[in-house]
Amino acid sequence: MSLASDTATPLRAGASLAGPSDYLTLLKPRVMSLVIFTALTTIIVAPGAIHPVVAFAALLCIAVGAGASGALNQWFDADIDAIMVRTRSRPVPSGKITAQEALEFGSILAAFSVFAMAFLVGYVPAILLAVTIGFYLFVYTMWLKRLTVQNIVIGGAAGALPPVIGWAAVTGNAFDALPWLLFLIIFVWTPPHFWALALAGSDDYARAKVPMLPVVKGSRVTRNHILFYSLVLAPVAVSPYALNLVGPVYAAVAAIGGLGFVGLAVALWRASEKTERASAMRLFAYSIFYLFAIFTALAVERLIGFAPGA
Predict the structure, then answer these.
(1) Could you tell me the pTM of the whole model?
(2) Which domains does the chain carry?
(3) Cα separations (Å) of 237 from 38, 159, 171, 188, 251?
């Protein structure tokens, strides 16, 4: 197990001179935005009523918990981040924030988010939030990421849980069908989304000795896996409609978006060595748009009066 203090870039032992923007970067705001949006969607579509203040508190706790996960991830992975071009300017490896500060900051935020969720919203979403943070830190970051090519497949469960947390914040129940189908969609979406990025940056992962699929198995195997998961994702994303849990707006967006996803995966599968990186980045960018699109369609249906089944 590597600790942040072992980074290639020396980390200062004294207090940092970091500004607010550095701490914001430590929270991984891009990842946080996706987490907040998927949780917000299920808060909107979940049956029953929730007071706007309680809904805001739930979203705030989810956002803070996601940020805490990002900070703790960057504390532990500072040695890797210092080697990779894509991540070496992050606050910890660059020395703007010390490893100890990142650990303390992330730990305080994690504890605050869970206890605030329990006190202000409910115990069920608080337990789910604690599981999400713990899984991301201990299972994915500390264990799987450095151990196996399946790191992002199993670790993707952490990023797939926010819709279930949002649903539980409204209903107090974590066992309804729709939020777990949304969990499954994100879970299946994560590997092709992340492997596309890893394919484009495989040299970075190789330098850092992270066993990402393109590094261990090569480009062709990675492209085969991306295509396979894309072919699975397309019908999985439409399955809520087949079960009469969503309406035709969602179904149309999911079906058309799924075809686009598969089309780009096929293009990547067929790409030459020269065009592979550009094709991978197109799929990566589209995958983000795709997930936002289907969750937007779900929220729009609810706002125009369609009530999904539970």
Answers:
(1) 0.91
(2) 19-174 (1.10.357.140), 176-310 (1.20.120)
(3) 14, 16, 23, 9, 8
